[in-house]
């Protein structure tokens, strides 16, 4: 059965009363997801867009801004990550940022139109005293009227509860790839550790943000395996970030074969079909992607982006470029008639998400 326990606050859009395609049924086998990935691209896009419009307003893209509040020096060895201490990537270890500095960044993100603010820390697992400090950050950011998200590594259940009490709305913790490929990417922790943290987050009543990375040398079956893991979580995540690997020199995965853009679009589409009520976020890798591929990702059902000039330590399209893209595509309420385009671009104020 499809998950009905998803706690997304958005109501299904009533304008499009099409029957949900049979493919939107779960639980999902890897074979069923692989079959979706293998569909002719136009059929897959059509199906994904159809599912999308049954559950979400068209043209609503959530803008989420990231801030690395504790950068570098991480003891884990995730093969994709520029912040792992053992890789020579030029990222220097820093200490946790102070509250006022974080509040300034969050206010700037809000002023630019973001509705969610995600704080990332390069920890394997926070200590209880770290949780206390991050709780202060969460309270301050929430006080600005932003949705809060944090990604701090593995959590114990009492730590998840403390973050919930501090006002945390979402916790990001990615499964990254299929279980069978995970040990090729990271050896300092196990897949089950990730699942345990997700359970602690869910039990504390925090919404789950969980996705993965495409382009780490994985086979198509591993992409299907990742989506199966995500879609079969009970309930599936409220947010699903799909990252295209940012190949950072010095990381073990720096020389990975770049992912075919259409294969990336397929993963977005299949995430949308299998997790209809989730915010599917077109995440890392947009700087390398080009506007046309991003537009295809929106067509495939992506309805969230990271918005701001930086991800955690690597680059992201700058805000002006993103506003122009939203205007050109007529997203987030922007209109794009030829007579109005210049004026809109001059005065564009992103309007954030409806969710
Ligand atoms: N340390 C915490 C953790 O691992 O959960 C939080 C931060 S970590 C940087 C958050 C996520 O960013 C990772 O799980 C991974 O999916 C994504 N990520 C990290 N480096 C990336 C890269 N080079 N390209 C794409 N995604 C990346
Ligand atoms: C997620 O799935 N992607 C974001 C966020 N969650 C924390 C991180 C992307 C990191 C890209 C590489 C970097 O800048 O460190
Ligand atoms: Fe550390 Fe997270 Fe980077 Fe892994 S992804 S090395 S846990 S910061």
Topology (elements, then pairings):
Layout lengths: L29 H8 L3 H15 L6 E9 L28 H13 L4 E6 L6 H15 L4 E5 L5 H10 L3 E3 L6 H7 L5 H13 L3 E3 L2 E3 L5 H12 L7 E6 L16 H14 L4 E4 L8 H9 L4 E3 L12 H11 L8 H10 L8
Parallel strand pairs: 1-2, 1-9, 2-3, 3-4, 4-5, 6-7, 7-8, 8-9
Helix pairs in contact: 1-8, 2-9, 3-4, 4-5, 5-7, 8-9, 9-10
The site of S-adenosylmethionine has 17 residues, from loops.
Number of structurally distinct domains: 1
Ligands: S-adenosylmethionine, 6-(5-methyl-2-OXO-imidazolidin-4-yl)-hexanoic acid, iron/sulfur cluster
How would you sum up the global shape? globular
Q: Reading side by side through the largest sheet, how are the strands ordered?
A: 5-4-3-2-1-9-8-7-6
By DSSP, the count of extended strands is 9
Major sheet summary line: 9 strands, parallel
Q: In CATH terms, what is the architecture?
A: Alpha-Beta Barrel
Give the radius of gyration: 19 Å
Per the CATH scheme, the topology name is: TIM Barrel
* Overall pLDDT score: 90
CATH homologous group name: Aldolase class I
Keywords: 2Fe-2S, 4Fe-4S, Biotin biosynthesis, Iron, Iron-sulfur, Metal-binding, S-adenosyl-L-methionine, Transferase
Subunit structure: Homodimer.
GO molecular function: 2 iron, 2 sulfur cluster binding; 4 iron, 4 sulfur cluster binding; biotin synthase activity; iron ion binding
Domain Radical SAM core: 59-277
């Amino acid at each position: 059965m499809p998950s009905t326990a998803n706690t997304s606050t958005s109501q299904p859009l009533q304008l499009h009363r099409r029957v949900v395609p049979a493919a939107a049924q779960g639980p999902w086998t890897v074979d069923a997801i692989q079959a979706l990935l293998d569909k002719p691209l136009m059929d897959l896009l059509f199906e994904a867009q159809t599912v999308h419009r049954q559950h979400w307003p068209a043209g609503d893209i959530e803008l989420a801004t990231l801030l690395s509040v504790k950068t570098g020096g991480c003891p884990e060895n995730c093969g994709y990550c520029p912040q792992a201490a053992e890789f020579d990537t030029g990222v220097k270890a820093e200490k946790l940022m102070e509250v006022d500095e974080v509040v300034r960044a969050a206010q700037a993100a809000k002023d630019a139109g973001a509705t969610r603010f995600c704080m990332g820390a390069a920890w394997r697992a926070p200590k209880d005293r770290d949780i206390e400090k991050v709780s202060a950050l969460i309270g301050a950011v929430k006080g600005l009227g932003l949705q809060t998200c944090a990604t701090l590594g593995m959590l114990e259940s009492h730590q998840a509860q403390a973050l919930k009490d501090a006002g945390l709305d979402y916790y990001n913790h990615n499964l990254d790839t299929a279980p069978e490929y995970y040990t090729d990417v990271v050896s300092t922790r196990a897949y089950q550790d990730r699942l345990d943290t997700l359970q602690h987050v869910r039990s504390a009543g925090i919404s789950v943000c969980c996705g993965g990375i495409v382009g780490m040398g994985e086979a198509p079956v591993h992409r299907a395996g990742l989506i199966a893991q995500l879609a079969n979580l009970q309930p599936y995540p409220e947010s699903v970030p799909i990252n295209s690997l940012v190949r950072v020199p010095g990381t073990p995965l720096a020389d990975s074969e770049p992912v075919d853009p259409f294969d990336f679009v397929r993963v977005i589409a299949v995430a949308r079909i299998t997790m209809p009520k989730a915010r599917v976020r077109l995440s890392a890798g947009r700087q390398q992607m080009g506007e046309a591929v991003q537009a295809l990702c929106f067509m495939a059902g992506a309805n969230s982006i990271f918005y701001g000039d930086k991800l955690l330590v690597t680059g992201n399209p700058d805000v002006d470029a993103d506003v122009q893209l939203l205007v050109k595509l007529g997203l987030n309420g922007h209109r794009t008639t030829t007579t109005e385009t210049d004026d809109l671009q001059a005065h564009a104020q992103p309007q954030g998400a409806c969710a």
